From TrEMBL:
PANTHER family per the UniProt record, alphabetical: IMIDAZOLE GLYCEROL PHOSPHATE SYNTHASE SUBUNIT HISH (PTHR42701:SF1)
UniProt cross-references to Pfam families, sorted A to Z: GATase
Protein name in UniProt: Imidazole glycerol phosphate synthase subunit HisH
Keyword Amino-acid biosynthesis: yes
Transmembrane spans: none
Domain Glutamine amidotransferase, chain residue ranges per copy: 25-218
GO-annotated biological processes: L-histidine biosynthetic process
GO cellular component, one term: cytoplasm
């Protein structure tokens, strides 16, 4: 890593990074990859888009995007060795970010049409269909982060862009900081910060200035000790 060492959980001001952090984006055949790459580059990262473990391991940070069904994304991840990579990355202490279905697969299980599929299992919890009349939940919505959230530090307008019909309703993880959102009376997990792992149900890369600030915050977070 370049630049001075910060205490665990410390946050540099976005734009004050000593050097552009290197970020690997895991390419496992799920959509929105190039949107994520462009947004991360705009936030100051040097981005590598790859399915190669060796190429991604050379990066300082890892992003797991995802669009579609939980089970299908898990199958695609397995096909490129992504499940083992993400588990090992989470255990290594290096910064890890999941987006949309990339956030969902961090949970232990996903249930679609009554069928349960195993997730990566970083978080204890289950992803299931939202209990709302209008699905998918698509468009802008306000989130409720914890007051001491690092990911949302300095984010004024906390409206982000969502496209999903499934979510988790709880994170059974001691020490996890949970950001919430509500759609059609159903309160669900919109984001998680736990140790070196962060994830969002919404798409920061499609969320304008708020999303750009959130990505800059993530790039500015120090890795876990």
């Amino acid at each position: 890593m370049t630049g001075p060492t910060l205490a665990p959980g410390a946050l540099r001001e976005p734009g004050a990074l000593a050097a552009s952090p290197s970020v690997g984006v895991l390419d496992y055949g799920s959509g929105n990859l190039h949107s994520a790459v462009r947004a991360l580059a705009a936030a100051g990262a040097r981005v590598t888009l790859s399915s190669s473990r060796a190429e991604l391991e050379a990066c300082e940070r890892l992003v797991v995007p995802g669009v579609g069904a939980f089970a299908a994304c898990m199958e695609q991840l397995r096909s490129v060795g992504g499940v083992e990579l993400v588990r090992d990355w989470a255990a290594s202490g290096r910064p890890l970010l999941g987006i949309c279905v990339g956030h969902q697969v961090f949970f232990r299980h996903g249930v679609e049409k009554g069928i349960s599929s195993e997730g990566i299992g970083i978080y204890h919890g289950t992803v299931e269909m939202l209990d709302a009349v209008r699905l998918p939940h698509m468009g802008w919505n306000t989130v409720e982060p914890p007051a001491d959230s690092r990911l949302f530090a300095g984010v004024g307008d906390k409206r982000f862009y969502f496209v999903h019909s499934y979510a988790s309703h709880a994170v059974e993880q001691p020490g996890a900081m949970v950001t919430w959102c509500e759609h059609g009376g159903d309160r669900f997990v919109a984001g998680v910060e736990w140790r070196n792992v962060c994830s969002t149900q919404f798409h920061p890369e499609k969320s304008g200035a708020a999303g750009a600030r959130l990505l800059a915050n993530w790039l500015a977070m120090s890795p876990a000790a």
